[in-house]
Amino acid sequence: MKQRLLPALAISVLAVAGTTLFFTAAAPNPGAASNPEWKTRVEKSPRHLEWVTLKHDGRDVGAYVGYPERKDKATTVLVIHEIFGHSDWVKALVDDIAAAGYIAVAPDFLWGTGAKGGGTSELTSQEISQKINQLSADQKTADLNAAVDYITKLPGSNGKVVVAGFCWGGTETFRFATNNKAIKAALVFYGSAPTAADALARIEAPVYGFYAENDMRINGGIPAATEAMKAAKKTYDPVIYAGAGHGFMRAGDDQPPATTASDQAKTTYAANKKAREDGWKRWMDIMKKVTDAPATPVATSSAPAAPATPRP
Hints:
The protein is α/β, with parallel strands linked by helices. It has one domain (2-300): Rossmann fold (3-Layer(aba) Sandwich). The chain has helices spanning 7-13, 36-43, 88-99, 125-132, 137-152, 168-177, 197-200, 216-219, 222-231, 248-251, 263-292; strands at residues 2-4, 48-56, 59-67, 74-80, 103-107, 157-166, 185-189, 207-214, 236-245, 309-311. Strands 1-9-8-7-6-4-5-3-2-10 form a ten-stranded mixed beta sheet, with helices on both faces.
């Protein structure tokens, strides 16, 4: 069950008792801690999935791209990964988006910080946490602009792009909406909003929020964001998913708990799974709405992206 938010309802959510679900990356890298099914799904996918190198301002950025199997041009999706970096789940999500009929690209923001010049896969969990918090706002924006330029200019693209980010990436999605006028929708999954009124005033795309009921750390900022976006005369549509915890799009896609697990663990998983299913349906409804809308090209402020170099 999902709940449409009004300011009063958002405030009442803070009083809901529950377990906030966080993911810890205790293994050397997120891939080692991943559900092996995510990697298997990608390996067995019939769709074309590849790494490319985006180039801008003397910087290389590795990005994972998925192509749908369709005859006509497709809307594109820019995926902004979680604080855990570019994981197997991100690759599986790119494939899910492609399976739904859309082109997807997921840049690795930690590219160039790995021991061999790569990104997340070459870092320990501690290094990922340290390095992702050291990224400058300007570099993140430039990486995202390069990804938008690249994906929207692919021969199979219809020129429309939707941005979707998760956790850390959800916050970055909201922030990027203040910096790029080309995006047609911003999907913020359990991320926070910018607080500066002048930043919110620059937003042109509708912002859709996907939040977990048991996530008061993030939900505490929803009332202020709702009022600020209203004052700026911007579209902000937050939805809370009942019983879910922070990170439900990933948690609800994970393996179910063992039969010997506690009732609480089973209940939490069921709520996350339901939230993911409902969130995915809402996401696809938004994609259709964007795709069906008349094209209104908007020039970006970024320079054209250099040709991407495929990575093995």
